[in-house]
Amino acid sequence: MKKNSAFSRWFYGEKDTLLGKVEMKPQNGHAPRAGEIRELMEERRLIREHIYDVEDNQKLRLFHRLYQAAAVVFCLMLMLIMLVVVSWLPENGDPDNPVNNEVSARYIENGLQETGAVNIVTGMILDYRAFDTFGESNVLFISTVTVLILLHNKKKEKKTSAEGGMRADKSIYEENLILQKIAGILVPIIVIFGIYVILNGHLSPGGGFSGGAIIGAGLILYQNAFGFEKTERFFTEKTYKWVCFVSLTFYCLAKSYSFFTGANHLESGIPLGKAGAILSSGLILPLNICVGLVVACTMYTFFAMFRKGDF
Amino acid sequence: MFGPNLFTNYGEAVSVILFVIGFSNLLMQKNLIKKIIGLNIMDTAVYLFLAEKGYIRDRVAPIVVDGVQEVEAYINPVPSGLVLTGIVVSVSVTAIMLSLTIRLYRRYHTLDLDEISMLLKKEGR
User: Fold this and answer.
1) B-chain residues within 8 Å CB-CB of A79?
2) In sequence order, what are the beta bridge partners of A119?
3) pTM for the full model?
4) For the segment B88-97, what is each residue's pLDDT rounded down to a tens digit?
5) Measured between beta carbons, which residues in chain A are less than 8 angstroms from residue B52?
6) Which of A307, A308, A305 lies closest to A145, judged by CA?
7) Measured between alpha carbons, how far is B28 from B50 in angstroms, rounded to an integer?
8) A17 — phi, psi (to 5°)?
9) Residue A48 CB-half CA count within 13 A
10) What is the DSSP-derived secondary structure letter of residue B72?
11) Which value does ipTM take for this structure?
């Protein structure tokens, strides 16, 4: 690699190519001065009156009415067209529908032998179509990154109003005894149930996505009851980064290996195990755990970002 | 105009009506949060449609019980996987839209789309 090229300087962090070209300033919470609020409200009132001034503005009234009428007519037409299409669709629940073709027949007849998963849907999404699920996990990861870019407050600016607001309601956490007692009982049960759903993804309904969402909900309940100080002890930005990185990389490498060996008719060396046992069905269980970790971290990160803009 | 299966396909018909309800929310509401809710209703309608498409009369969910592996025993597993994909994408899209809405609110202190465009015009953009 050529030294001092734009790429190498960017790579070593000497030059930020986006600096000055995009809006990078993190937004602070909204805290206007006392007089400013009245000013703003007056301005808003004027604007609102201007926008919705239908009595004096004939053009505007015409536009509003035309827009509403056009929207209603458009929606009704859309509904009519789609209802006509539905009425010509093949009969619901008919076994001879064209949807029920040889693909699903193959999944049902050979799924258990080929993937080792009792739950055929899990076998389908984490074995036959594993790269699709990998893409889904990446969609979650990318959306979390976007939310982090949009809402993350830098920790240094502790004097901003959002932080001040959070510190002000710290006393809420100390007094909220009912919530704390109930959360102390419920959170372990919820998290254990989530782990159960993840680990039994190939045996019963469930899997990485639903189990991860359950664990994320448990974490959110824990945070609501005990505050950010308690969750910061085990969940920070670094935790999120490493958990997602390791899970996604493991998923990608493991599935690349199994697809590579499968496409070249090699022995993959991954035992399928006895169908119905927890430790069976090859790669599905580790992949489920990866997906579950990503989903749980994503859910909690969304919540933390929307709540405070920080972990 | 209407075909023979409108009332046997009532699940699909309900999903179509839900879709249109969500879409009319998207068109006619001025509040950004309500628009997002409308989009979520549309997502739900799509899940319902897919689930209805995968259903087959008198069959059970595709989890192998007692080693029964005939095609005649289980419903179609493919739409279930598609619904899963849809749910994940909808969660991500909703999170991104809500965070963009928060940023808009912090900038303009309103959620009304008309007011925001008015303020934009005042700024000369």
Assistant:
1) 16-17, 20
2) B63
3) 0.82
4) 999 999 999 9
5) 92
6) A305
7) 27
8) -70, -20
9) 10
10) G
11) 0.88
